[in-house]
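Q&A log
Question type: sequence-to-structure
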Amino acid sequence: MRQNLLYLIIGALVVVVIALGAYIYREQTRPKGVELKIDDKGISIQQN
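Response status: OK
Response body:
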């Protein structure tokens, strides 16, 4: 029982580290400047 809890905590930490790494990578590779989005709601302009 105690060993299963330890594996669960380690697994959760691994998932958090992977998710944080993916988020940081996505933010670092995002192009700088202005994002222009045209959809059914209209035109949206967002500065990055």
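Response note: Helices lie at 2-29.
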